[in-house]
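Appendix B, Record 12. Input sequence as logged:
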Amino acid sequence: MMTTTPDASNDPAGQTEPVSGRGSAPATVRRPDAVCAAAVDLARAAVVESGGEHVGEHLAVVADGERLVTHHFEANEPGYRGWGWSVTLARAPRAKFATVCEVALLPRTGALLPPEWLPWSERLRPGDLGVGDILPTDPDDDRLAPAYLASDDPAVEETASELGLGRVRVMSRLGRLEAADRWYSGDSGPTAPIATHAPAPCGTCGFWLPLGGSMRSMFGVCANLFAPDDGKVVSADHGCGAHSEALVQATVPVDLDVVLDDAEVEVVSRVEHGPGSVDDEEPAEPFGHG
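Logged structural output:
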């Protein structure tokens, strides 16, 4: 964009002093070119032409070089809190007008900025990989090691000699330690709420299948259909209420008091009689006997 504006002043001489303003101070003490410094309206019009509909106050003009200055404006663009417009103007030797070189929207001190950019491989989180997605592994991934290299894991040593028959790479010591830390400190470790209320640890459960190699002593897979961690890796000191030995003896309370139902039983009060009463007489012979 080569927008210009006429100016009646002559070519200034002696650029040795800075121009004060609210912007950043120049790196070297230099007086801005008078023609370029006076072209505030030109700089503002350049911002508007570049899409800056919300141009704020003119903050400062800074000398960038001989006949080269930058005007700074406050930016009132929605979502760009703390940002500012910068317009660089230049003037050719013996010219009476300034020319727009560049317009930019730049962050200032305390500006609202987006988070630091990360490559996609570092932005991925557990659970992001969906059906059909492919996640390439870096050839230099330090979590993996060539299968033919010596390892401190006995299970790896058993297969390492079978060069060409097994896996090309296996987990390195660093990879195993990172996995162990991740599992142990997560929901499958001893600090999970369900583990703190468990009747016994997973390492003593009949449904616990230990892993192989150096992970065997600390981690295994839960194989209890009714456990919340079925099919997942759990630590030996993890636990849940579905422990194989969590036997509960069911007891039925028995009331020893005899309860009589008055609707079915006739209650008769016993009356004590003295000597010679009717109760002391001989019982009558049954009917039908002589």
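The CA atoms of residues 62 and 203 lie 71 Å apart.
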